[in-house]
Amino acid sequence: MSLRLSTVILPYRRWHEGGRQAWTRAEELGFHAAYTYDHLSWRSFRNGPWFGAVPTLTAAAAVTERLRLGTLVTSPNFRHPVTLAKELITLDDISGGRITLGIGAGGTGFDATALGQEPWTPRERADRFAEFVALLDRLLTQDSVSYEGDFYAAHEARNIPGCAQRPRLPFAVAATGPRGLRLAARYGQAWVTTGDPKLYENGTPEQSVQALRGQVEGLADACAEAGRDVTGLDKVLLTGFTPDRGRPLESLDAFVDFAGRHQELGFTEIVVHWPIPESDFAADQKVFEQIAMEAPAQLR
What we know:
Elements: E1 4-8, H1 15-28, E2 33-36, H2 53-63, E3 68-74, H3 81-95, E4 99-103, H4 122-139, E5 144-148, E6 153-158, E7 171-174, H5 178-187, E8 190-193, H6 205-225, E9 234-238, H7 252-263, E10 269-273, H8 285-298
Parallel strand pairs: 1-2, 1-10, 2-3, 3-4, 4-7, 7-8, 8-9, 9-10
Antiparallel strand pairs: 5-6
C-alpha cells in the first residue's frame, strides 16, 4: 500500500492573515488530509492567538474540495459527546463527507483545568475516554440516543440525518497502552500515535522505531482479541514528537528515509506539521513543499 502524506495546521493565525492560505495550499500540494489540534490553548502558544478547531475546519471545508479534514486530536477534556456529535454531523455535511475525527484521552495541559475542574487522574481519563468514544459512536449512528453512564448522559438526543459518511465519519483513535489500543480495535477506522513520549528528550531514533514496533504489535493483539483484521485499520504517525524531531523535514532524502523506516513498521499515513517560524515546528517552507509534492511517489 502507498504511504499517504498529510499535514497538521495549527490554528494560530487569523483566517484572513494566512490561515485560509495554508489550507488551500495544502490541497494544492496534494496532501491526503489536513488536520488541526483541538485545544483551547496549547503549550508555547498559550499566550498568543489560538482559534477553535470546529469553526476552523468548517471554514477549511468551504475553501477546499478534495482534501480530507479532521482533528488530531479531540479529547473529553472540554467536550461532551452530545454537543460534539451535533457539530461533527454538521461539519461532515458541509464538507461533503471529508471529516475524520482524531480522538484521544487528553492530558494534563491547559485544557484539563480551563473549565474550572481539577485535572483527572490517568485512571479517570481512561475511564472517561472509553465511555466518551462508545457514546459518541452511538450518537453518530442512531437517530435518537438515551444513555446514563458514570460520566456522561444523553436524553433522547436527536441526530437526524446523521453523518454524510455512513455509517458515520471515521474515528482515528490515539492510543499507546493496552486499554486504548482495545478502543482503537473496536471503534477505530484508524489508529494514531506520536511514538513513545519517554524517548523524546534522551532517546534515539532507533529506540523510537523499536518502541513503535511494539505499539504496532500491541494493536495487532488488540485487533485479534476483537476478531478484527489489523490490516483493515489505518496506522497514522503524527511526527514531531519522536527523537528525530524536525530532522525529517530538513531535506527530501531525510524525509523519505524517515518515512520509509516507519512504512516498514506498517504505518499507512505520516502527518507532518505545517512550518511555523520560531517554534518547535520551524522548517524551510520550500523544502516542506518539495517533500509534499515529491515524497509520496518515492514511497509507493
